[in-house]
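G., the chain you wanted modeled:
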Amino acid sequence: MSRDFRLHRAPVGILDYELAEERATALGRMGRALERALARLREFDAAHPRSDATASAQQARRALVREAGHALWMFVVQREACGLRDSRTIMRDYNVPGEVQQCMGAAPATSTRPAT
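Predicted structure as C-alpha cells:
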C-alpha cells in the first residue's frame, strides 16, 4: 500500500493541501524578506550615526525604511491570507521600528512625467 496520502483523497482535498502548502511557503519567504530588510536597516544605523548623517546617508536610510515597510506589508498580507490576523506579534517579535510600521505598504514614488 502506498504511503502517499494524496492517492487516497478526493481531488479537492489534494488541492486544499497544495494551496495551504503554498501559503505556508510564501509566508516563510515573506518573513525572511522582512528579517533581511530590518537587518539592513539596523546595520546601516550602526554604521551611520544619525547625528552627523550626510544628505546622501539620510536619503539612503529613507530608502531602507521604505524597503522594510514594504517587506512588512507583504508579510502582514501573507499572514492574513493564512488566517493570522493579529500583527502585534510581528511588531514585537521582529522588533519593527515605529517608522517602518508607519510607512508599511507605502509604495515608492515613481515618476509619471513622459520622457523627453
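The chain has one domain: 9-102.

Shout if anything looks off.
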